[in-house]
Amino acid sequence: MFKKVIINEPKKLENIDTALYTADFILEKALNISENILRCGGEPHRIEDTITRICTAYGAIETDVFALPSLVIAGIKMADGTVCSQVRRIYKTSNNMSKLDALNDISRKVCEGVVHIENVDEYIDKALNKQPFPQYLSLFGGMLAAGGFAIFFGGDLWDGFAAAIAGFFVSVANLRKFRLSNQMLHTIVSSFIGAICGLILVHFGVGNNIDMVMIGTIMLSIPGLAFSNAVRDLLFGDTVSGVIQLVQATLTAVMVAFGYIVAIMLYGGVVK
Amino acid sequence: MNEIIFKIIAGIISTFGFAIIFRLKRRHWLLATFSGVVSCTSYFVFSELFDGDFIPNALAAFFTALLCEYFARLAKTPVTVFLLPGCIALVPGGMLYYTMNNLLNHNNSVAAECFLTTLTIGVAIGGGIIAASLVRISILRFIAKIKKA
Q: How is residue A176 annotated by DSSP?
């Protein structure tokens, strides 16, 4: 629908002797960065941009990249006619914005020539091992988010309080230690925990409206902007990755609904 | 009026919560929360002005995304960093719940209606984000043209 627009054209670095590096070496380092960007929640079109920029900076005259949420295919051609292509498969993605920011910073510095391409792996290791704040703080974040949304969608303060407690348990289930290997199963389990906590709390009179408490906790497990990102990719012409993200988002939403329905039915069977 | 301010404050708090959940760097927390302020406020303002679900959500997403593009340029970071927590208040979690609840209670027609609303809001947010990024691209092109001339 729209043409791909690149404002700042990728440029070749001037002060670097490109004959020193083989096509294999450059492409491998570029893929190391972009693979990790994709793992930390970067969009596929960002990967394509990153690889094109890095390879062009180090002397590739042609770069062809195709990125999906789970796969990156890249091929480059150097000035002396050597060609190379490599493939990476990505199994797990999560949203970790501090790592995404650090990795994006590295890729920009590589393109500017501030970071030498030989040292890229060290920088990536450093970026991946850095924690901006301890992990248990995300439990607090989950409480704030769930409680806030319970009130935002029309509940009162007690609903917010109940949703915050339920959100705490969902966040505990979302900690890396307790993550299940299957993403879909994990979604079902975490939304089940959220629903059952909400139902028990409302049953004992902590919250008043069961709907609002449930909506507060549901916000923690739904795929967030994944659906809108899929629409965005579709309209920008990345049809395949858009369709994949659309299916993933819909499937996650169905799994969340499934977890909640199981909890509600279980509660109905026990109490009534 | 008081109730809406109460809701906006709740939305801002949950935006901050999501900024922690998505593990933003500490120096980005303030900007991300501010984009949440804009998304919540503009959503309530536009839903007073316009009927339906599409236009208020699309406009709120547009202005939030525009602000996020500016913040991303300011902080030299990918725009996703601010967009994810900023637009989270617009995500139709409530409608998804009502869809499910009505399916469970065998109100299939109401469930279908809620499901369509969920889809509409999702598409509206996507459209708003696209519009913002197109505006950014055309502004940058305009600046590049001026610099050349």
A: G
Please indicate whether, in this complex, the C-beta atoms of A151 and B129 are within 8 angstroms of each other: no
Q: Pick the residue of A191, A228, A272 with the most B CBs within 10 A to test the interface with B by mutation.
A: A228
Provide the token pair at B58.
């699309």
- Order the strands of the A60-68 sheet from edge to edge: A60-68, A71-78, A83-89
A-B C-beta contacts closer than 8 Å: 177
CA B133 to chain centre: 14
Model confidence, pTM: 0.90
B3 burial (CB, 10 Å; 0-12 / 13-18 / 19+) is exposed
The pLDDT of residue B2 is 85
Query: Is the Cβ–Cβ distance between A166 and A217 less than 8 Å?
Result: yes
Question: Phi-psi bin for A224: left (phi > 0), alpha (psi -120 to 50), beta?
Answer: left
First to last CA, chain A: 54
Amino acid (one-letter) located at B3:
E
Residue of chain B nearest A175, judged by CA positions: B21
Partner residue opposite A97 with nearest CB, options B23, B94, B141: B23
A225 neighbors B91 (Cβ within 8 angstroms): yes
Could you report the per-residue pLDDT of A244-260, keeping only the tens digit for each?
A: 999 999 999 999 999 99
| Residue B97 to residue A218, Cβ atoms within 8 A | yes
Q: Quote the ipTM score.
A: 0.90
Structural contact between residues A226 and A245, judged by C-beta atoms closer than 8 angstroms: yes
Of A156, A62, A58, nearest to A115 by C-alpha is: A58
Instruction: Specify whether the CB–CB gap between A54 and A116 falls below 8 A.
Output: no
Calculate how close chain B gets to A97, using CA atoms only, in Å.
5
Alpha carbons B124 and B91: distance in angstroms, whole number: 10
Say if residues A29 and A117 touch (Cβ distance below 8 Å): yes
d(CA B61, CA B35): 10
Rounded (to 5) percent helix, strand, coil in chain B = 85, 0, 15
Instruction: Tell me which DSSP letter residue A255 carries.
Output: H
Of the candidates A97, A108, A231, the beta carbon closest to that of B126 is on A231
The string of DSSP letters for B28-85 reads: GHHHHHHHHHHHHHHHHHHHHHS-SSHHHHHHHHHHHHHHHHHHHHHHTS-THHHHHH
How far is A113 from A73, CA to CA, in rounded Å?
25
Number of Cβ atoms within 10 Å of the Cβ of B120: 17
Confidence of residue A272 (pLDDT cuts 50, 70, 90): low
